[in-house]
Amino acid sequence: MENITTPTLWMGGAVDWNVPIQNSEQMYIAMKRLGRETQLVVYPGEHHGIRRPSFQKDRFER
């Protein structure tokens, strides 16, 4: 992970049981500790497939 220099964006649904958001949270924290440019976006109430139109729009714009 120390070799990662590209900015990262971690995103997912808060209640996704297929790919739990905890995985993204752990990677985000690790990247922050290394001083890397990173961002975490958690969509509340969403599962693996982001359904709410405003969240879909946000995801595609990011």
Write the layout of secondary structure elements.
Layout (H helix, E strand, L loop, with lengths): L7 E6 L7 H13 L4 E6 L9 H9 L1
Parallel strand pairs: 1-2
Assembly type: single chain
Overall pLDDT confidence: 95
Amount of beta strand:
15-25%
* Span between termini: 23 Å
**Main beta sheet strand tally, sense and closure:** 2 strands, parallel
Q: What keyword list fits this structure?
A:
single chain, 62 residues, alpha+beta, two-stranded parallel ribbon, 2 helices
Report on this model:
By secondary structure, this protein is of the alpha+beta class. It has one domain (8-61). The chain contains 2 helices and 2 strands; from the N terminus they run E-H-E-H. The protein has helices at residues 21-33, 53-61; strands at residues 8-13, 38-43. A two-stranded parallel sheet has the order 1-2. Strand 1, helix 1 and strand 2 form a beta-alpha-beta unit. The protein is globular.
Give a nutshell description of this structure.
The chain has helices spanning 21-33, 53-61, and strands spanning 8-13, 38-43. The protein has one domain (8-61). It has 62 residues and is an alpha+beta fold.
